[in-house]
Amino acid sequence: MPTEMRRIVFSNEELLNAINFFNSPNIPKLPEGVITSASVDPENKSNIILKFNSYNRDAERDIIVSVASLGALLISYCIKSKIPMSKKASKSLKIIGDNISLELVFGNDQIALK
Predict the structure, then answer these.
(1) Distance (Å, whole) CA 18 – CA 104
(2) 35 in Cβ contact with 17 (< 8 Å)
(3) Contact 52, 19 (CB under 8 A)
(4) For residue 93, how many C-alpha atoms fall within 13 Å in the half-sphere facing its CB?
(5) C-beta of residue 38 within 8 angstroms of C-beta of residue 50
(6) 63: CB partners within 8 A, 6+ apart
(7) 3-class DSSP state for residue 9?
(8) Helices (H) and strands (E) in the chain, counts
(9) Less crowded by CB within 10 Å, the N or C end of the chain?
(10) What is the dihedral of CA 74, 31, 13, 91, to 10 degrees?
(11) Weakest-pLDDT range from 6-15, 21-30, 45-54, 90-99
């Protein structure tokens, strides 16, 4: 069976909207402002660092969220927004540039070539 991959990339504005909409207890409360970038935490690969710039300050602040919490939130956001996704697809978060993407892989009965 061929493998199909889908990538849903969230702009930083849409990521902020998703976090604020669901108000998850597993994600820290965000101050007013904008997310300027996302990156993997070099000290703990199971966390993502969101760089946050407050409206009333020029200083950037780092907000650390777990990959699992953010992934669950973005899946819920996709369901709420009627973005189709298969229950059977494997799902993972990736950093694309400065943004977060949700990657779905279907039919992952892959043959490794050596």
Answers:
(1) 19
(2) no
(3) no
(4) 25
(5) yes
(6) 28, 30, 49, 50, 52
(7) strand
(8) 2, 6
(9) C
(10) -20
(11) 21-30
Q: Which residue do the tokens 């949700």 mark?
A: 102
Among candidates 103, 99, 76, which has minimal Cα distance to 14?
99
pTM over 0.90: no
What residues form DSSP beta bridges with 84?
none
Place of tokens 């849409």: 14
- Token readout for 7 is 């990538």
- The Cα 50–Cα 63 span in angstroms is 5
Q: How confident is the model over 5-24, as pLDDT tens digits?
A: 899 999 999 999 998 888 77
CA distances from 39 to 1, 32, 63, 108 (A): 33, 20, 11, 26
